[in-house]
Amino acid sequence: MTRVTALVLRRLRAPLLALIVTCAIAILGFVLIPGLDDKGNPWRMDFLSAFYVVTYTATTIGFGELPYLFTPGQRMWMTFSVYITVITWFYALGSIVALMQDPALQRAFRETRFTRAVRRLREPFYLVCGYGDTGSLLVRSLVERGLRAVVIDVDPDRISALRVDELGVDVPALAADAGVPRHLVEGGLRHAHCAAVLALTNRDRVNLTVAITAKLMAPKTPVICRAESPDTAANMASFGTNFIVNPFEAFAERLAMALYSPETHVLFEWLTGVPRSHLEPVIYPPHGTWILCGYGRFGKALRHRLEGEGVTTRIVEAEPEKTGCGDCVRGRGTEAGTLLEAGVREAAGIVAGTDDDADNLSILMTAQALNPKLFLVARQNRRANDGVFQAARTDLVMQRGLIMGHEVLALVTTPLLSRFLVLARSQPRAWAEALVERLASLIGSVVPDIWSVRVADETSPALMAALRQGKDLRLAHLLRDPRDRGQELAAVPLMLSQDGALELVPDPQTRLHEGQEVLFAGGWGVPDRMSWTCTYCTSLAYVMTGEQLACGHLWRRVRGLGERQRC
User: Fold this and answer.
1) How many CB atoms lie within 10 A of CB 194?
2) Is residue 112 part of a domain?
3) Are residues 275 and 129 in the same domain?
4) Which partner from 199, 257, 395, 447 sits 20 to 30 angstroms from 152, CA to CA?
5) Per the domain annotation, does 111 fall within a domain?
6) Residues 256 and 328 both lie in one domain
């Protein structure tokens, strides 16, 4: 029995019983009270006739006295029956209307529809817990890349916003607490096509609960969690959470990367950006002393990362006692005197990293007035303030939603991408600069599409058939356009993986073998064309030799091809 059925039966039990008893009494009276037929002979109603009469009188339809005129006794009973049945009907209808307006029933209906929508999914999907700045950005990015998502968020307004967003596909969504295991099961935690669980709420405790539930109820399903507290991150890691992302640590790492290798920073932004968005220009943060306003979780992560790169920092903190900052300048940083004491005139950059957007904007405006050459970095806490921060002309904005979206997108879209990014961090600036220039020349000014090709029967049957025939298959063949082999696809091979060994930016003349997987970045629509080459033998033969094979029986007969030339 479903929750909806159980709730309806429980709430309507008394009205239905009253209606049944009342109608039964009325029917029994009509059966027992004698009447007269049109010839004056005694006549009694059978149960069917009595039921028919009570039905049309109780619902106030009123067909008259049927099949014969009533006797006075029958009319008295009819009068009594009308009063008691109509009153009972009004009582039952009122109970039904009240039930339909009951929030509990409406919630049960929503959960039932949500569960059915999830159950009908027949392709891999990601269970996204939390539809705030991070979740909304990630869901849109997944949809743009042709992936499916299921959303659970405790805020009904966010779910309503999801339903009116123009995503292009239906995204099943439920307004509920993701920390309740039942809701995770309804969202497809145990579904055969659940690709991963993404715990992205703004409460570490809920994310921790989601991770524990997923690991206990679906141990094989990957779990990616957001954790802003080191203690929570350590707790998640203790029971095997697959990936833990701290937005503060991630941004600190990106800022440090921008300092020592701007090209690598741009490469990260491009490969993990929102699909089809415009590419950001290369930024060159200056070296020197940096002022950090705010020494909470964000400030501590920044200081640790920057000083690890040899950058000197000065801290401005309003409450040093609570944060444990012993060598900081007391103040919020919104006052000119506090910034002057911190050495703003000699500083190379400043980070406004408090948890209040108004204070952060005030810090930047005050600091810029004192030192117009400062490199400005701001922490943006609310996505609704995009326009204000753009007007402030900051050089770099830390928005948790964007940072988390980029990090998680790199983990879920293509598994090889996260491994590539790890290796890219250790490459020299010249390598990153050359790769950025190569990507920009091929794809223009939009974020590239990311995909991978695995040489296996289930993913690339044409490639496997060519290898079994002993053909010399090379990476360059995948880079040719199957519509015109004289043209190259707008794609760059980023990494080749084989038996655990990884090769960055492999040479196009690299021979392909079974089990290899190649990570690509390129223009939108290129993956579909490359899939033709990997799937259809005619396309592969064309890009390798320029020969147009005839696969159909009729065309082989017309061209005089033998059976051995089948593809």
Assistant:
1) 23
2) no
3) no
4) 447
5) no
6) yes
| β-strands 173-175, 148-153 pairing | parallel
Please list, in sequence order, all residues whose beta carbon lies within 8 angstroms of the beta carbon of residue 324, skipping any fewer than 6 positions away.
none
Give 315 or 104, the one with higher predicted confidence: 315
Full residue range of the structural domain in which residue 347 is found: 249-415
Mean pLDDT of the chain: 86
Query: Considering only 31-40, 60-69, 553-562, which range has the smallest mean pLDDT?
Result: 553-562
Q: What is the mean pLDDT of residues 434-452?
A: 86
In angstroms, what CA-CA distances link 263 with 284, 388, 436, 438? 9, 28, 7, 12
The secondary structure element, H or E, covering residue 167 is none
Burial of 101 (0-12, 13-18, 19+ CB in 10 A): exposed
* Cβ contact 70:78 at 8 Å: yes
Burial of 321 (0-12, 13-18, 19+ CB in 10 A): exposed
- CA 372, 376, 379, 380 torsion: positive or negative? positive
Structure tokens at 178: 């993701």
Inter-residue contact 212 to 239 (CB < 8 Å) = yes
Total structural domains within the chain: 4
Q: What is the pLDDT of residue 506?
A: 93
CA dihedral 131, 133, 134, 140 (to 10 degrees): 70
pLDDT tens digit sequence for 211-227: 999 999 999 999 999 99
Q: Are residues 402 and 550 in the same domain?
A: no
The 3-state DSSP class for residue 315 equals strand
Residues 77, 25: Cα–Cα separation, whole Å: 10
**282 shares its domain with 409:** yes
Longest dimension (CA), the chain: 118
Identify residue 534 by its one-letter amino acid code. C
The CATH number of residue 300's host domain is 3.40.50.720
Region 256-271: mean pLDDT is 84
Q: How far apart are the first and last CA of the chain?
A: 54
The upper half-sphere exposure of residue 170, i.e. CA atoms within 13 Å in the direction of its Cβ, equals 8
pLDDT higher than threshold 70 for residue 549 = no
Mean pLDDT of 467-492: 91
Which CATH number fits the domain that encloses residue 505? 3.30.70.1450
In a domain, 420, yes or no: no
Provide DSSP, 145-164. TT-EEEEEES-HHHHHHHHH
Would the pLDDT of 566 be above 50?
no
Tens of pLDDT, residues 101-158: 888 888 888 888 999 999 999 999 999 999 988 888 889 888 887 889 999 999 999 9
Q: Is 515 left (phi over 0), alpha (psi -120 to 50) or beta?
A: left
Q: How far apart are CA 322 and CA 127, in angstroms?
A: 37
Query: Are 61 and 148 within one domain?
Result: no
Do 224 and 188 fall within a single domain?
A: yes
- Whether 395 and 297 map to the same domain: the answer is yes
CA atoms within 13 A on the CB side of 561: 17
Determine the 3-state secondary structure of 345 from DSSP.
coil
- Establish how many alpha carbons lie within 13 A of residue 151's alpha carbon, considering only the half-sphere containing its beta carbon: 28
